[in-house]
Amino acid sequence: MKKTISIISCVAVLLLLAVGSPSGHAKEQVTRITVVGSTTVLPIVTRAAELFVKHKNGAVSITVNAGGSGVGIQSAGQGRADIGMASREITPRERKRFKSSGLQTLAVGRDAVACVVSRKVYSAGVRALSKEQIGDIYLGKIKNWKEVGGPDREIVVIDKERHRGTRHVFMKYIFENENARTPGTRLVTGSNNEEQTKIAQSDSAIGMLSFAWMNDDVVGVGIREGSAVIEPTLENVRANRYPIARDLILVLAGEPQGIVREFVDFILSPEGQQIVVKSGYIPVHSN
């Protein structure tokens, strides 16, 4: 999928989605919602927040912060955010830690994680890799692209911060351990935007990204399973053929109430689900 999402981001992104209150609304009547977490889910919530604020005529402001799935889950569990964003499931350890918060998850879309390479690597012949080859690259056992049919060039291995949901899903498939160590790594990145930029700037990199972040310079390779190659397409995700798929979720401390409930319902509405599609993901509701 050829799509670039440009978001001004660092480890944390602050996006204040508030419009000036019309004359009929006093300042103290403006209701605030805080959302924190996954940079994969961020485009959905950002766009939904913009529309929701307009529908409410400025009577609500929504602050959206990035930081990763782990930060989103923790923020919801500790009551520092009304909604957490995550691109992975809550772990048993997190469930235990935030047991008193009664954490609930709500899927708003579906996505997959691609093994991505720099355009020059793909053009030189690396179109598919097996689970074992990817694992050996991250372990430092395979260090040159020529070992997997590519150019004679040292592999620049890019990993993500350990609390990132995209990393959890990717490493669970490759190593059956979401916290696997990767001694072959040369660079650790945070957000999808940051990793996309690093891979695009290189002529020999490999990394992991949500489908929505692939583009002409950052290309997803097929996953080779036996004699078959499963291409990184949304069609394969819909058909449950692609092996590294996941739900995109909102994390809430208990049953949402009031304006938070309204915002969540908006994301799940037909209008909200169209935002999911426009963000490059698969909606959970087709109508």
Automatic annotation (TrEMBL):
Q: Gene3D superfamilies, alphabetically?
A: Periplasmic binding protein-like II
Keyword set includes Transport: yes
PBP domain spans which residues? 30-271
Q: Which organism is it from?
A: hydrothermal vent metagenome
Sorted UniProt keywords: Signal, Transport
Q: Name one GO molecular function term.
A: phosphate ion binding
Name this polypeptide is given:
Phosphate ABC transporter, periplasmic phosphate-binding protein PstS (TC 3.A.1.7.1)
Q: Which Pfam families match?
A: PBP_like_2
Q: Which CDD domains does this UniProt record tie to the protein?
A: PBP2_phosphate_like_1
